[in-house]
């Protein structure tokens, strides 16, 4: 069964949105198979967003991700990657449709509440980064 990595970012945790966000994924029909509240180190944030290293906002992004605890999760189900991305909504909350997580809870691209893997390959890479393999199987 397909798996995806979802992370509630520090602003989502601070705003006490873990419950409502998990509810949306559960109501959709996805299955939560791993969850961990953790404060991540700069090196993990840099590895996670390695593809964005050349972007002007990269250091702001790393600072944001390490500014407080995140909630790292693995969700499983049919088309888990695409279904999770649909629940999350477009990257920029201004463009995210009402009914999506970013559309309902976020105002600004630099504080967009939640991350979801964009491919099955990246999902596996991110699950390996945040969870030891023996925790999710
Ligand atoms: P994520 O990987 O967090 O799920 P995404 O795949 O929808 O987001 P990416 O283009 O990979 O979008 O951007 C990763 C993250 O970088 C965004 O979620 C956002 O937090 C941040 N980001 C993207 N563009 C900007 C920007 N112009 N200014 C500040 N932060 C940005």
Summary keywords:
137 residues; alpha+beta; Alpha-Beta Plaits; four-stranded antiparallel β-sheet; 8 helices; 4 strands; globular
What order do the helices and strands come in, and which of them pair?
Elements: E1 3-8, H1 10-14, H2 18-28, E2 31-38, H3 42-48, H4 58-65, E3 70-76, H5 80-88, H6 101-105, E4 114-116, H7 120-130, H8 133-136
Antiparallel strand pairs: 1-3, 1-4, 2-3
The protein binds adenosine-5'-triphosphate.
Please provide a written account of the structure:
- By secondary structure, the protein is α+β, with helices and mostly antiparallel strands.
- It has one domain (3-136): Nucleoside diphosphate kinase-like domain (Alpha-Beta Plaits), CATH 3.30.70.
- It is 44% helix and 18% strand.
- It is built from 8 helices and 4 strands; from the N terminus they run βααβααβααβαα.
- The protein has a 4-stranded antiparallel β-sheet with strand order 2-3-1-4.
- It is globular, with a radius of gyration of 14 Å.
- It starts with a strand and ends with a helix.
- It binds adenosine-5'-triphosphate.
- Adenosine-5'-triphosphate (ATP) binds next to β4.
Distance between the termini: 12 Å
Q: Kindly state the percentage of residues in helix.
A: 40-55%
pLDDT under 50 segments (min length 5)?
A: none
Total beta-strand segments: 4
Anisotropy-based shape: globular
Order of helices and strands: EHHEHHEHHEHH
Taken as a percent bin, the fraction of beta residues is 15-25%
């Amino acid at each position: 069964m397909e798996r995806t990595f979802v992370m509630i970012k520090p602003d989502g945790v601070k705003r006490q949105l873990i419950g409502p966000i998990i509810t949306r994924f559960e109501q959709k029909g996805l299955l939560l198979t791993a969850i961990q509240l953790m404060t991540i180190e700069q090196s993990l944030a840099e590895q996670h967003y390695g593809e964005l290293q050349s972007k002007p906002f990269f250091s702001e992004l790393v600072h944001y991700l390490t500014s407080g605890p995140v909630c790292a999760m693995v969700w499983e189900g049919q088309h888990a990657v695409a279904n999770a991305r649909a629940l999350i909504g477009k990257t920029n909350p201004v463009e995210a449709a009402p009914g999506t997580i970013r559309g309902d809870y976020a105002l600004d691209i630099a504080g967009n509440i939640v991350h979801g893997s964009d491919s099955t390959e990246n999902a596996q890479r991110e699950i390996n980064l945040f969870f030891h393999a023996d925790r999710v199987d």
